[in-house]
Input
Amino acid sequence: MTTPVRTRFAPSPTGFLHVGGARTALYSWAFARQCKGSFVLRIEDTDLERSTQESVDAILDSMKWLGLDWDEGPFYQMQRLARYREVADALIASGHAYPCWATKEELDAMRESQRARGMKPRYDGRWRPERAKAAGLVPPADRAPVIRFRTPDDGDVGWDDLVKGPISFPNAELDDLVILRVDGVPTYNFGVVVDDLDMDITHVIRGDDHVNNTPRQIHIFNAMQRALPRFGHVPMILGPDGERLSKRHGAVSVTQYRDDGVLPEALDNYLARLGWSHGNAEIFSMQQLVEWFNFEHVSRSAAQFDPEKLSWLNQHYIKAATNERLAALVEPLLAKLGIEAGKGPALAPVVALLKDRATTVNHLAEAATLFYGDGMPEPELLAQHLTETSAPALRMLKARLTELAAWDKASLSAAMKAVLASSGLKMPQLAMPLRVLVLGRVQTPSIDAVLELLGRETVLARLSRHLDSD
Ligand code: GLU
Output
């Protein structure tokens, strides 16, 4: 029998969900789903100064929005302090960890003298029990110690990374790291191992900024005499300038992309493809990702974020989305602009007309405002378009529209053509002024479609404002 696959996503709630984190979560999720395993969510909230509830909420919201559902959790590390203490005590008992009372001043002095001797600064192991004893160090009674892990002095530590292949580090480069702080809060490397073990994680998938932490974690796994999970380190995402993607490059959080009008399936597709490929496939669903995902095709080098490609995908998914769904997304955006969509044409056919050209839902909402304003042109624009040539034709058109049996695109277009035939004007000579009189601007989607949606009453009333007075 094989062990069921269990992956996890373990964000620190110190900000919004970064697209890099979201991509890691996406791979971790897809792999769990593919293996019919479980995906666990763990909130690593041990940085008390920087962790916030607001950030937890933003991360959970972003994951839900992206469709990354988890099977267990969210677990919070700060609710597991007793467990870390228990494991630290067990490691002390087995000789793998020990209390250390070195003060900040002592540690600073230690580093200073190492630097002066041209050595890499590191903890020198002075409170390792046998050394402390030999040196006659006596534990001070008035303050609590940190707990340090006794890292093997010699040999190497390595693993076969799911993404990067074999990696190994000489132990001599690693010092005895703190695993439990004075206040009983675990350091990242300790909390992560205790949790990955307690949560039976089989595949640790995370950003490659953690590659240097993995050797330390492997030592702790070994000390606890438990089998190692597989590790897969996913390369970072870079901005267009080749630097690590950050706020400097514009939007970096999932929330920001959502607020900018990106559809979740577009961001999922974009992020999944950024740093992983399946042949030539550029457009694929979450189901396909789950089916196709594998570590062999995760790129070993960093990926560059390309806003234009995301925009192209978003456009694709906007076109593919149902009008009702888009209308429901656009409505609150219009409301924010003070527009009550209920007071104009139905929103679904409006978005249907506009969606082919929109690259974001926000653009779609902007374009939709055309249908919900009063369509009053600026006086100069009106003067420019309502001329001696156009006015008689527009009047003729108005008369025809009043009589029109059916208010639909075909009949509207036929009415315009009839006016062109009898006035001798060309289409733009009629359509431009018509747009200005009815909508207050010269650029609109196809005019017959726009008139159809606005409805007879509105169109005639707007024409009357300009044509009936003279
Ligand atoms: N809390 C860590 C981070 O957000 C998790 C790293 C890991 O997955 O082990 O970077």
